[in-house]
């Protein structure tokens, strides 16, 4: 009975939440007339190589009026020299430098706040130094949604496809995270965003005192800000292929594990209603697999178990494959059964370990 309940809850979220993203129609880049000025903010600590590769792709965007604010956060490499060189070629580049202080240690939220204060414009667009926009229409596509009450636009940032199981797992986890926060926003329940590609108004930041309520948490400059400030009326999404911002994935399990532990730390500070909803959703998926394995060991009716599993897989395929095409990861469907199982058990271990992890830092 519990197995069937877990199945029904899990399928409910797929059909009545995630399917909203399946039917979502994005606006083509050529149909987007936007004119308001924009400040793009990038925080960088020892990111010389990434900035050299990715910053020109941001500075060369096809947009009428924008600046790029790079916060050089206590870098010990040659980031400063690189930014000086770029400043000579790009008049729309503004550099904010934070110097190391022996007694004052800070996280990314301090750097982001200084970048926002230095921004000249009301509309802010965020990304990271190790990311690059998929097209020169990135700014335009992300800004097209700012009309009326809209104050937050949630974008999407996939990871580059590479070989190996770890890469596939990272990309599936990124897909699941995106399909969840994007579809929940479409359903009027926005609860998080990803700082590699999101936009909001400067006035919203200062009106709600920035990161003051969660400044003690090292992570969460993106998802916690959205969790506390996004509403049904003030949040939109953007997933056009040209608006996506690509990132380099972790290449070792240790570095990926460290990244996920840091992200889990922010989730503990979500609104209680969001934490309960996400716990029920995630718990149903995990419980489905755990009970399926137990029932197989107990030699329950194999035909019934197989039928329920295949029905779930069919529903997932019908809903997720069109979404995967939109989110640039349709190749994952070929390995979906194995990846989905691995993802759920990885989530179990990650959740347990994060309960006891205390010290978390940005870099």
Q: Would you give an account of this structure?
A:
With 363 residues, this protein is an alpha/beta fold. The protein has a domain at 26-164 and 185-258: Spore Coat Polysaccharide Biosynthesis Protein SpsA, Chain A (Alpha-Beta Complex), CATH 3.90.550.10. It contains 12 helices and 9 strands. It has a 7-stranded mixed sheet with strand order 3-2-1-4-7-6-8, sandwiched between helices. α1 packs parallel to α11 (302-326). The termini are far apart. The mean pLDDT is 92. Belongs to the glycosyltransferase 2 family.
Name the features.
single chain, 363 residues, alpha/beta, Spore Coat Polysaccharide Biosynthesis Protein SpsA, Chain A, seven-stranded mixed β-sheet, two-stranded antiparallel sheet, 9 strands
What are the SSEs and their pairings?
Blueprint: H1 2-22, E1 38-44, H2 48-59, E2 66-73, H3 79-89, E3 93-98, H4 108-118, E4 123-128, E5 131-133, H5 138-143, E6 152-154, H6 165-186, E7 198-201, H7 202-207, H8 223-229, E8 235-237, E9 245-247, H9 253-267, H10 272-297, H11 302-326, H12 336-354
Parallel strand pairs: 1-2, 1-4, 2-3, 6-8
Antiparallel strand pairs: 4-7, 5-9, 6-7
Helix pairs in contact: 1-6, 1-10, 1-11, 2-3, 6-12, 9-12, 10-12
Domain Glycosyltransferase 2-like: 39-177
Protein name: Transmembrane glycosyltransferase
GO molecular function, one term: glycosyltransferase activity
């Amino acid at each position: 009975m519990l197995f069937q309940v877990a199945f029904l809850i899990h399928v409910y979220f797929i059909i009545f939440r995630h399917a909203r993203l399946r039917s979502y129609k994005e606006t083509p880049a050529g149909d987007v007339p936007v004119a308001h000025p924009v400040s793009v903010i990038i925080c960088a600590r020892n990111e010389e190589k990434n900035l050299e590769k990715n910053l020109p792709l941001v500075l060369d965007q096809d947009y009428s009026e924008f600046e790029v604010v790079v916060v050089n956060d206590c870098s010990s490499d040659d980031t400063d020299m690189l930014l000086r060189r770029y400043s000579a070629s790009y008049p729309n580049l503004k550099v904010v430098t934070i110097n190391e202080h022996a007694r004052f240690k800070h996280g990314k939220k301090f750097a982001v706040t200084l970048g926002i204060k230095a921004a000249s414009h009301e509309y802010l667009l965020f990304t990271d130094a190790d990311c690059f926009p998929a097209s020169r229409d990135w700014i335009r596509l992300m800004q097209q949604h700012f009309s009326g009450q809209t104050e937050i636009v949630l974008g999407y940032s996939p990871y580059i496809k590479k070989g190996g199981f770890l890469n596939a797992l990272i990309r599936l986890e990124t897909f699941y995270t995106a399909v969840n926060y994007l579809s929940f926003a479409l359903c009027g329940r926005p609860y998080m965003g990803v700082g590699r590609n999101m936009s909001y108004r400067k006035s919203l930041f200062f009106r709600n005192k920035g990161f003051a309520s969660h400044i003690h948490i090292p992570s969460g400059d993106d998802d916690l800000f959205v969790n506390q400030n996004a509403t049904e009326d003030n949040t939109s999404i953007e997933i056009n292929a040209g608006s996506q911002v690509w990132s380099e994935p972790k290449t070792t399990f240790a570095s990926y594990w460290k990244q996920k532990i840091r992200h889990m730390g922010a989730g503990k500070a979500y609104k209680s209603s969001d934490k309960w909803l996400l716990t029920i959703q995630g718990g149903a998926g995990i419980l489905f697999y755990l009970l399926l394995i137990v029932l197989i060991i107990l030699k329950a009716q194999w035909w019934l178990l197989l039928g329920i599993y295949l029905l779930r897989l069919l529903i997932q395929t019908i809903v997720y494959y069109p979404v995967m095409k939109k989110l640039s990861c349709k190749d994952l469907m070929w390995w979906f059964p194995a990846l989905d199982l691995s993802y759920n058990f990885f989530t179990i271990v990650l959740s347990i370990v994060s309960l006891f992890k205390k010290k978390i830092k940005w870099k």
